[in-house]
Amino acid sequence: MEPKYIGFDIDSKNTVACAVQQGRKDVFQSFPTDTRRMQKYLRQLGRDGSPLHLTFEISGEAGYRHDALRPYVESLTVSNPNKMTWIFRTSRKNDRIDARKQAVLLSIDEVPKVHIPVLEVRQWRATIQHRRLLVNRRTAVKNRIRALLKAHGLAQPPHRGRWWKRANQRWMEQLTQDWSEVSGETLWRVQLKNLLEELTLLGGQLKQVTSYLDQYLDRHPGGVLLMSIPGVGPRTAEAVLAYTDDIRRFLRSKQYCAYFGLTPKLDESGLRRRLGHISKEGPSVVRWLLVESAWRVVARVPAFQAFYERVQAGQPNRRKVAVVAVARKLLAIMRAMLQSGELFNESLVAAVPAKSRR
Question: pLDDT tens digits for 81-114?
């Protein structure tokens, strides 16, 4: 039997399916967006013994749907719509057209595929993102507290050092209790009290999720490898490992760095060829952590420091360019280590290529 290629156009309420089969007329069907209903549709479509190949676009529920529908088809491909437009352009757009577009592209093997990791890895990634959100929220609360204090003439804490050392935090707590009666001049202290309570809550949540992630990373053999690089800590190691998933997916170093958005954009026309800023595609949390780690490895590894200085070329305005180049080389070295299973040594900095010139 000729295989059937199926495209799902899914929205919150309805799903339009299009089945394309060679020598047959395209078949459309619409049904409520429900996983059981999708499974029933696939069972009915495959009753004649035809191999089924399914695709639908990436979304927040793509992982769950992938796991639920995979047993009912020969293959399942989750597509990236942002990379699909150049392949199949049309000025007309509706649910039937979108469903057929996906089915046709799947039949000619031109669907831009998205890697869907197993449930455990997806949850690992989600927890890493959750921790980053907690860090950002805590930083926002700290900024609001400082702005509130400055607005009332308290531009500097009484104790030298960081704003958030214990002595200064006790001073802030004292301010929330240091008034004898409620008046217009003391209302701001209520805001301060609430913000300090929120800061304490976020600190506890952050400590809890960090402890969980540390325990999970201890079970992963790649954690020991990546943290053998001076300056690379558990947060960077876990993010790289979680979003890499299977290192065998990346055949080349350039492909690996491009996945994390650390390769420059190419603008080429005729004899003109220009490499611009990095693409910033892929998971931003990994890119952010890699750049933070890059500053630390430059300070701790002489070979990285030499590479940084060579890229910077003595120009202060190239500091950011140089540290991004270090982050890209660091990522290429991580790939080599995950492939070989060997711990870090400084010779890798010279052995693993990473383009740094623009």
Answer: 887 655 555 556 688 999 999 999 999 999 999 9
Q: Is 83 left (phi over 0), alpha (psi -120 to 50) or beta?
A: alpha
225 and 343 Cβ atoms separated by less than 8 Å: yes
Burial of 158 (0-12, 13-18, 19+ CB in 10 A): exposed
* Phi, psi (degrees; rounded to nearest 5) at 8: -105, 125
Cα distance between the two ends of the chain:
53
- What confidence tens digit (pLDDT) does each residue in 187-200 have? 888 899 999 999 99
Q: Average per-residue pLDDT in the chain?
A: 90
User: Is the separation of the CB atoms in 172 and 196 below 8 Å?
Assistant: yes
The pair of structure tokens assigned to 173 is 């707590």
CA distance 299 to 230: 9
Residue 269 has a CB neighbour count (10 Å cut-off) of 7
Amino acid at the residue 198: E
Is 245 within 8 Å of 115 (Cβ atoms)? yes
What are the angstrom distances between the C-alpha of 6 and each of 2, 27, 76, 113, 125?
13, 9, 10, 15, 29
For residue 295, the surrounding DSSP H or E stretch is helix 284-300
Cα separation, 115 vs 250, in Å, equals 12
Structure token pair of residue 286 = 């990994």
179 vs 358, higher pLDDT: 179
Answer left, alpha or beta for residue 314, where phi above 0 means left and psi between -120 and 50 means alpha. left
| AA letter at 140 | A
Pairwise CA distance, residues 196 & 164, whole Å? 11
The predicted-structure confidence for 128-167, as pLDDT tens digits, reads as follows: 999 999 999 999 999 999 999 999 999 999 999 899 999 9
DSSP bridge partners of 17: 8, 29
